Prior knowledge:
This protein is mostly helical. The protein has ten helices and three strands; from the N terminus they run ααααααααβββαα.
Amino acid sequence: xxxxxxxxxxxxxxxxxxxxxxxxxxxxxxxxxxxxxxxxxxxxxxxxxxxxxxxxxxxxxxxxxxxxxxxxxxxxxxxxxxxxxxxxxxxxxxxxxxxxxxxxxxxxxxxxxxxxxxxxxxxxxxxxxxxxxxxxxxxxxxxxxxxxxxxxxxxxxxxxxxxxxxxxxxxxxxxxxxxxxxxxxxxxxxxxxxxxxxxxxxxxxxxxxxxxxxxxxxxxxxxxxxxxxxxxxxxxxxxxxx
Length: 242
């Protein structure tokens, strides 16, 4: 059994850690539709602490959860030999290319991808595959921190339609005179104008998007820690969506 002094590990990882701080917290990266570029951490803070939407607020605790997950592995990691892989260096180069593309395109999603790949590459290059296998789940959890706004548009409207169809199923069972147009519901009583006594619009918050990703994040943690097999973990995680 081998043990690695913390000073030795820090000495091997500090260049990658310093580069990560530079890429995330110091270099102005993207501005989207704004006039000035923000750092990636600045972009994340805007999304995590947005007052108009709670969809991505859970992301603010993800770095702390990742740190806790790594800390729980500390005794196991002390016994794993350090054997770096050149594939990690190649992964870091790909990450930097992605970072550059995102910077030139003023598109922060490439920045998210580059940081995720950079962390993967740094672990492989400096510590090796055995370490990466132990840190695979914390690395996966880190990926849940990125606010993927485009998913709100892609998933939000279909979920609103599902909500509308669910309401229509209930009102039909109750024999209520209601008709649906898109994601709007109107009363349709005989002898009265359509919508005269009831008008309801299934808007964005009714899609469930405000809580969907946070619930998936919690389910990911519960599934990993409470289920003994990979298949059962996947089933519990998927069940968080409906």
